[in-house]
Amino acid sequence: LMIGGFGLIIYGGPLALMITVFVVQVKCFAEIINIGYAVYKMDNLPWFRSLSWYFLVASNYFFYGESLVEQFGVLINNVDFLPFLVRYHRLISFSMYIIGFVWFVLSLVKKYYLRQFSLFAWTHVALLCVVTQSYLIIQNMFQGLIWLIMPVMMVIINDIMAYVFGFFMGRTPLIKLSPKKTWEGFIGGGLATVVMSLGLAYFMCQVPYLICPIEYSAELERMTMSCEPSALFRPQEYGLPDTVTTWRRILGMKETVTFYPFFVHCFFMSLFASIIGPFGGFFASGFKRAFKIKDFGDLIPGHGGIMDRFDCQFLMATFVNVYIHSFINIPTPGKLLQQVFMLRPDEQLELFHGLQDSLLARGILQPEA
Predict the structure, then answer these.
(1) Torsion angle (degrees, nearest 10) of CA 352, 357, 358, 362
(2) Which pTM was predicted?
(3) What number of other Cβ atoms are within 10 A of residue 151's Cβ?
(4) Looking at the chain, which terminus has fewer C-beta neighbours within 10 angstroms, N or C?
(5) CA of 11: how far to CAs of 21, 23, 36, 69, 359, in Å?
(6) Which residues lie closer than 8 Å to 268 by C-beta, 6 or more apart?
(7) What CA–CA distance (Å, rounded) separates 245 from 52?
């Protein structure tokens, strides 16, 4: 049912996914903060609850504003008052945070100093774990839906297959934080995740809707998800070591292999989902044991709260974002144009003449007759 719902949201497009990420973020933040209120027993200070939610609003203003500036620069530049908000976005965001900071200091009550500072730190850790990571999820999505869907499916596959292998073959305990986890489930689930992820990637690499970056088109005045697939999503032919090539020739097989370059990245992402991803769940288990609670919430019958389902997803999203910026993210004309349109007209003209001179000097552009 949950996977089917996820499929419907994907069909709804980028806006539906962004709204879903935002709703999940708010619910996860609420679950973590409610645990903090229960632990530190701060119900008699109502302004402090309001302060936590204020910091959530301020954080979202900063992070979502950053996304809008980066992805919708052309559109923003055409609306009268938005360029002002863009130019001073970080100043406005910082001012919002300072207002919250001053509000916190003024709300301090002598006999509750320790509890109030503890909950202040609790709020900031919740913001770091939830808001920052949801921002990274959205950033991944703009690179192409495949960068959001594949990591999510890897975590789901690993969770299911680790349970299956552990249920039928589990004998050796893996970690004390989760007594039901076994080495057999961990290893079997990991291998299954790698194989099944590569199989899923094979089909997804053939769907332009999933592999094209999400960009705003000034000509069409809407978001577009159509493109000529990059080399990453086109089958490439690769040579093999001489020994392997010889044996393949003897066996009457082709001397080269052909596959999508994305498979290489998919392999490394699936390794992370299999080896490091479960530690997000172990961390959540340790957190719940520390505060003697069974689940973060009770929204999903039999599964706990939203945070219980997304503990590994947030960690995975952070890795994928780092991976994209380290190995994948290459400037494209569309992205550069978004930045160019944010410049003043005289700066755009200066850039135009500088680029024209460079192209002429390199013989790429022929001088006018």
Answers:
(1) 140
(2) 0.84
(3) 28
(4) C
(5) 15, 18, 37, 25, 42
(6) 323
(7) 62
